[in-house]
Write a structure and sequence with these properties.
InterPro entries: ARM-like, ARM-type_fold, Neurochondrin. By secondary structure, the protein is an all-alpha fold. It contains 40 helices and two strands. It has a two-stranded antiparallel ribbon with strand order 1-2.
Length: 723
C-alpha cells in the first residue's frame, strides 16, 4: 500500500476507527473531497471502499432508519457521490457488492419524477453515472440484463422523465451488446420506447433528429422481429418513421444527415419489409429512396482507392440492403411505373451495379480479398450479396465480365455458407452469419442454364456445396422437437408437443424458399449435364438424400411446394441413374409412394362445385402457380422412368392410382378435360400398359373403354383394345 497517498491513508484509518454511524457519516464528507481529488489513485479508492464498508453505503441509500439531523436525500446524495467515484475503477465497478446494488440504483432513476427528488435531481444524475460505469463492464452488463434494466429504461424514456437521454444511452449500450436477447417476449416496452423516439425524430428539426436516427437504427435491429411484426396492430411508430424519413429524403442534406437517415431506413426495411416504403400508398418515397441509394453507391465506389471505399463499408451496406429489397420488390411486378420512371430507375441501378462490379473485380485481385478483419470480410460478403440480387433479375447484361468474376463470387458465397453451417452446429452465439449463398441461389438458377456459367460452376465443384446447402436447409425446414433426456421422459410424458418459436418459424420459411431454388438449379444440372448426373458421385449422393428424406417430410401445407420439388428432382435423378437402382430397394419404394401421393392428389372431382369437372385440389390451389409446371414435369418424367425401372409400375397399381385416374376421368364431362392434363394422364397410362402386363385388366375393369371414347384418348385406346 506504499502507493496510497498519505491523506487517503489517514482518512481510511479514521473511518476504521469510527464507533458509530454518525461518526462514520461525518467522516464521509472528507471522503467525498478526497476521492474527487487528483491524488486519489486506484489503490486509494480501493482502500477507502474497504474502510467504509459497502453495507454502510447501502444503508445510506435504502434505510429509513437514519439520524434525523439531515434529510434522507442528503445521505443518499453523499453515498451516491462516493459510489460514482468508486465505479470509475473497473475492480470496484465489477465488485459483487456494487453489482448487487443495481436494483437499488434502478429504483432511484425510476423514481426521478417523485416529489421527493424534485429538489435534489443530483441524486438521479449520480445514480445514472453509477449505472453507466457499471454497464461499461461485462459483469455489470449481464446483471443489468438479468434485472430487466432494458424494459425499465424503456419505460422511463417513453414516460419522458428527467434525464431520459441517460436512460436511452444505457439502452443503446446494452442492446448493442445483447442483440435480440435484450428484449422480453412481451413487446410492450419495445413498442412504447420506439414510439417515443420515432415521434421525437419525426417532430424534431434540429441536428438531434439525425442522432435519433442512429439510435433508432441501433435499437430496431435488435428487436424480436416475428413478435414485433405480429403485434404491430394499433402501433403508430411505423408511420412516424415513414413521415420523419420522408421529410429527410425531401430536404437538402449533407453526408452528416444522409448517412444516419439511410442507416435507419435500411434497418426499418429489414424489420418491417418493403411494404413500409408504401405506407402512403404512393410510389414517390420508394423511387426517391432507390435513387438516393443508387447514387450513393455510385459516388462512394467511383474510381476510389479500395481502402477509401472500405472505410464507407457501413454506409454502403445500408445502401445495398435498400437496393436489394427494391430490386426484389420490382421483380414481383406490383410496381406500376411510367415509361420515363422505368428508364430513370434502370439507368440508376445499372450505373450503381457497374461500379459494384468494378469494385468487386478489383477486390478479387487485391490482398484485401484475404483480409481476416471481420469488417472487411463482411463488406465483401455484402458486395457479392447485392450483386447476386441484381443478377437474379438482370439475366443478360455484362455476361463476359460476370463469368470472369463468378469464381470469386462463388468462393465468397461458399465461405459465408460454411460460416453459417459452423455457427448452426455450435451454441449459436451472436447474430447468424451472413448467408450470401442463399441470396445467390436465384442468380444461380439462371447460371445453371448458361453453358459457360455452368462450366465455371462445375470447375469449382459448386454442385458439392449445393448438396451440402440442401442438407442444411432441409434440416431447418424439417423441424423436429428437441430430444428429451431419458431421465426426464416419464416426468414430461403429458406435456403438450412443443412447437417452433416465431424465430424458428421464420427460419423455416426462409429454408423452404432456399430448398425450392436449390431444387431448380439441381434439376437443370441433371437435365443439361446427363453424363455427370449418371456417373457423378455428388449426383449419386443427391439421389440418396432425396429418396431417404422425402418420405420423412411432414405432410403440411407449408411443405407442399418443397415436397413437389424434391419428388420431381428425385424422378429426374432416378431416370439418369436407373442402371444403379436395385429392385425393391426399400428407400426407393418409400420415395415412390411419397411421389405418387404428390402427383395423385393434385386433381380431383370431389372438391368441384360441378360433379363433372376436374379441378385442382383445394390443398394445391393456393400454391398452384409454383406447382403447375412441376406436376406436368413430374408426370412426364415418371413416363420416362417406367421403361427404365419397370418394377416401379407395381406401386401405381397396388396404390390404386392407375385405377383411380380412370374412375375419375370417367366422371368428367366430355369436352371439358384440359388438353395438357389429358395428355399427361394418357401418356402415363399408356406407359404403364407397355411395362406391366397386369395393367390392361385393371384399366378395362375400371371402364377405360368409356374414358378413351369420351376424351378421345386414341393412343391409350389402341394399346388396350387394338384398332
Amino acid at each position: 500500500m506504499t502507493d496510497v497517498p498519505e491523506p487517503v491513508r489517514k482518512c481510511a484509518n479514521l473511518l476504521k476507527g469510527t464507533r458509530s454511524d454518525t461518526e462514520k457519516f461525518a467522516a464521509l464528507f472528507m471522503v467525498t473531497k478526497l476521492v474527487k481529488g487528483k491524488d486519489c489513485n486506484s489503490a486509494g479508492k480501493k482502500l477507502l471502499f474497504e474502510a467504509i464498508g459497502f453495507p454502510f453505503l447501502k444503508k445510506l441509500l435504502v434505510s429509513k432508519d437514519l439520524p434525523n439531523d439531515c434529510p434522507p436525500l442528503v445521505y443518499k446524495s453523499v453515498a451516491l457521490s462516493i459510489l460514482t467515484c468508486f465505479c470509475q475503477e473497473e475492480e470496484l465497478a465489477t465488485h459483487k457488492d456494487i453489482i448487487d446494488a443495481i436494483p437499488t440504483l434502478l429504483e432511484i432513476v425510476e423514481q426521478a419524477d417523485d416529489e421527493d427528488y424534485e429538489d435534489n435531481l443530483i441524486v438521479v444524475s449520480e445514480a445514472y453515472s453509477c449505472l453507466k460505469s457499471i454497464a461499461s463492464y461485462e459483469p455489470g452488463q449481464q446483471a443489468l440484463l438479468a434485472t430487466g434494466a432494458i424494459p425499465k429504461m424503456s419505460q422511463i424514456y417513453s414516460a419522458q422523465s428527467f434525464q431520459t437521454d441517460e436512460a436511452l444511452h444505457l439502452i443503446v449500450l446494452l442492446v448493442n451488446k445483447f442483440g435480440v436477447a435484450s428484449w422480453p417476449e412481451d413487446p410492450t416496452a419495445f413498442h412504447a420506447l420506439i414510439q417515443r423516439i420515432a415521434l421525437d425524430m419525426e417532430t424534431d428539426h434540429t441536428d438531434r433528429k439525425y442522432e435519433l436516427c442512429r439510435i433508432l437504427a441501433d435499437i430496431l435491429i435488435t428487436c424480436r422481429r416475428e413478435i414485433v411484426i405480429n403485434s404491430l396492430e394499433g402501433q403508430i411508430w411505423p408511420e412516424s418513421l415513414f413521415k420523419g424519413c420522408g421529410d429527410i429524403l425531401k430536404a437538402k442534406i449533407g453526408p452528416k444527415q444522409r448517412d444516419p437517415a439511410l442507416h435507419l431506413i435500411a434497418t426499418t426495411l429489414q424489420v418491417l419489409g418493403i411494404q413500409w416504403a408504401f405506407m402512403d400508398e404512393q410510389k414517390q418515397f420508394f423511387l426517391q429512396l432507390l435513387q438516393l441509394a443508387a447514387i450513393e453507391v455510385r459516388m462512394q465506389m467511383d474510381e476510389k482507392k479500395l481502402e477509401t471505399t472500405f472505410k464507407q463499408a457501413d454506409l454502403m451496406t445500408c445502401c445495398f440492403l435498400i437496393l436489394e429489397q427494391c430490386i426484389e420488390y420490382m421483380a414481383t411486378d406490383q410496381l406500376d411505373l411510367e415509361p420515363k420512371e422505368k428508364q430513370t430507375t434502370y439507368t440508376a441501378l445499372k450505373g450503381a451495379f457497374n461500379q459494384v462490379m468494378a469494385v468487386l473485380t478489383r477486390v478479387s485481385q487485391d490482398k484485401i480479398r484475404d483480409s481476416a478483419n471481420p469488417r472487411d470480410k463482411n463488406f465483401v460478403f455484402a458486395i457479392v450479396r447485392v450483386l447476386s440480387a441484381w443478377l437474379a433479375q438482370e439475366t443478360t447484361a455484362m455476361r463476359p465480365a460476370i463469368y470472369k468474376i463468378l469464381p470469386f463470387m462463388l468462393k465468397v458465397a461458399n465461405e459465408s455458407f460454411h460460416d453459417l453451417k459452423t455457427w448452426r452446429a455450435g451454441p449459436k452465439e451472436g447474430a447468424a452469419p451472413n448467408d450470401v449463398l442463399r441470396i445467390m441461389l436465384p442468380a444461380l438458377c439462371h447460371f445453371a442454364v448458361e453453358d459457360e456459367a455452368r462450366r465455371v460452376l462445375f470447375t469449382h465443384k459448386q454442385d458439392e456445396v449445393l448438396l451440402e446447402s440442401l442438407e442444411l436447409y432441409f434440416s431447418i425446414a424439417h423441424w423436429k422437437r428437441p430430444p428429451i433426456p431419458r431421465a426426464e421422459r416419464l416426468k414430461r410424458m403429458n406435456e403438450p408437443d412443443p412447437v417452433p418459436t416465431p424465430e424458428q418459424q421464420a427460419e423455416m420459411k426462409v429454408a423452404r424458399s432456399a430448398i425450392v431454388a436449390l431444387c431448380n438449379i439441381l434439376m437443370n444440372f441433371t437435365v443439361l449435364e446427363p453424363k455427370r448426373a449418371e456417373d457423378g458421385a455428388t449426383f449419386a449422393s443427391l439421389l440418396k438424400f432425396v429418396v431417404e428424406n422425402l418420405p420423412e417430410l411432414k405432410d403440411t401445407p407449408d411443405n407442399l411446394v418443397i415436397h413437389g420439388n424434391l419428388a420431381v428432382l428425385g424422378l429426374l435423378l432416378l431416370k439418369q441413374q436407373s442402371k444403379k437402382v436395385k429392385q425393391n430397394d426399400f428407400s426407393i419404394c418409400r420415395y415412390i409412394q411419397a411421389t405418387i401421393r404428390f402427383l395423385w392428389d393434385a386433381y380431383n372431382i370431389d372438391e368441384s362445385n360441378d360433379p363433372t369437372a376436374l379441378v385442382v385440389s383445394i390443398a394445391y390451389k393456393g400454391y398452384w402457380s409454383d406447382l403447375s409446371e412441376l406436376w406436368f414435369l413430374g408426370m412426364q418424367t415418371m413416363c420416362g422412368v417406367l421403361p427404365l425401372v419397370p418394377w416401379l409400375s407395381e406401386f401405381a397399381l397396388e396404390s390404386g392410382w392407375a385405377e383411380g385416374i380412370v374412375k375419375t376421368l370417367k366422371k368428367v364431362k366430355i369436352g371439358t378435360l384440359p388438353a395438357n392434363v389429358k395428355s399427361a394422364y394418357e401418356d402415363f397410362l399408356s406407359q404403364l400398359v407397355d411395362v406391366n402386363g397386369d395393367v390392361v385388366a385393371v384399366l378395362k375393369k375400371a371402364d377405360a373403354l368409356r374414358v378413351c371414347r369420351n376424351h378421345r384418348m386414341m393412343d391409350l385406346g389402341k394399346k388396350l383394345f387394338g384398332d
